[in-house]
Amino acid sequence: MFQGASALALDAKGRLSVPARHRDVLMATANGQLTVTKHPDGCLMLFPRPAWEGFRDRIAALPMSASGWKRIFLGSAMDVEIDGSSRVLISPELRAAAGLTRDVMLLGMGSHFELWDAQRHAAHEAEVMQQGMPEVLKDFTF
Fold first, then answer.
1. Are 110 and 51 in contact (CB under 8 A)?
2. Strands of the 2-9 sheet, one edge to the other
3. Domain containing 58: what range?
4. Please, what's the largest Cα pairwise distance for the chain?
5. Is residue 116 classed as helix, strand or coil in its secondary structure?
6. What whole-number distance in Å separates Cα of residue 141 and Cα of residue 112?
7. 52-107, pLDDT tens digit by residue?
């Protein structure tokens, strides 16, 4: 289970250094193989390959009424590998789709990660906080 936030920077070629606390797990469970695709909220999702395969199969099984979303998730997906310097390359197309520039936030989301432009993430988080607690969380014990 991946959790926590990491403030990172993309290099000039669009490579992201994988934080050490996640790298060992990713190497052991996915041989350093990841899949990156678009998220509906305007960020990217990074899946270890085994988790991606489950997600991919669930998306592929959706009915034709969801074909637009199938194209977004599956048609945008790119396979990447952690290189010898512990980096992954985020393609120019996916960087543009998520508005990624230099400063990014990598969020552990359990089975996968989200990759946000740092400013976009801060704005999104502020918007979520202003909306108040959703009904499903109102009886949740903290």
1. no
2. 2-9, 103-110, 113-117, 44-48, 33-38, 78-81
3. 2-130
4. 47
5. strand
6. 25
7. 999 999 999 999 999 999 999 999 999 999 999 999 999 999 999 999 999 999 99
Which residues have CB under 8 Å from 40's CB, separation 6+? 69, 72
pTM tops 0.85, yes or no:
yes
Alpha-carbon gap, residue 88 to 97, rounded angstroms: 17
Whichever domain contains 67, its CATH number is: 3.40.1550.20
Using a 10 angstrom Cβ sphere, with 0-12 exposed, 13-18 middle and 19 or more buried, the burial of residue 117 is buried
Residue 139 lies in a domain: no
The CA distance from 40 to 72, in Å, is 9
In a domain, 136, yes or no: no
**3-state secondary structure string across 52-66:** HHHHHHHHHCCCHHH
CB atoms within 10 A of CB 96: 9
Instruction: For residue 137, tell me if it sits in a domain.
Output: no
Q: What letter represents residue 6's amino acid?
A: S
Residue 76 domain flag: yes
Number of domains in the chain: 1
